[in-house]
Predict the 3D structure of the following.
Amino acid sequence: MDGPWLVVGLGNPGAQYAGNRHNVGRMVLDELARRAGARFTRHRTGSAVAEAREPGGPRLVLAAPQSYMNESGGPTGRLLKFYSLTPDRLIVVHDELDIPFGDLRLKSGGGHGGHNGVRDIAAVLGTPEFPRVRVGVGRPPGRQPAADFVLRDFTPTERKELPNVVVDAADAVAALATEGLEQAQQRFNAPRAR
């Protein structure tokens, strides 16, 4: 468990997307940076980067690609190269339609589940074998297209609970980096108490 972890929070750049469900990965990055008193700066890899350290744990390189979600792979690949890291030292934090709002699932590898940001990262890296913190945003109501649903802000009811969800997801990232995937899964993969 030596060396830093690269934590990539997926989302779209720009203020108009900041509150979208699709940007929950960025919200988790902001929470990790806030805890560490770290500030994001533009990095030559095409991402905004901040560095943090978990108490008694490894250094975290927090990165928000400045590309749109569907093009997250390029900046992620450049960051891994810049920091001389392999995909097993990458944690991708992203929204997940197939998980109820507020629940978390940690996993490594497997399919992309239709998530274009994860799909692009796996394609650029040539492997899907990297850890992920999947933050549940739930399914769209009725016949609303998934693409429209994730590009909308959380509902007022969801926004009341969202800070707790973001804190839990940040805790999950920290646990994954300090304790390993299996222990973090045991702590965070259970459904959220409602």
Notes: The two ends are 34 Å apart (CA to CA). The longest helix spans residues 156-179. Residues 76 and 121 are 7 Å apart (CA to CA).
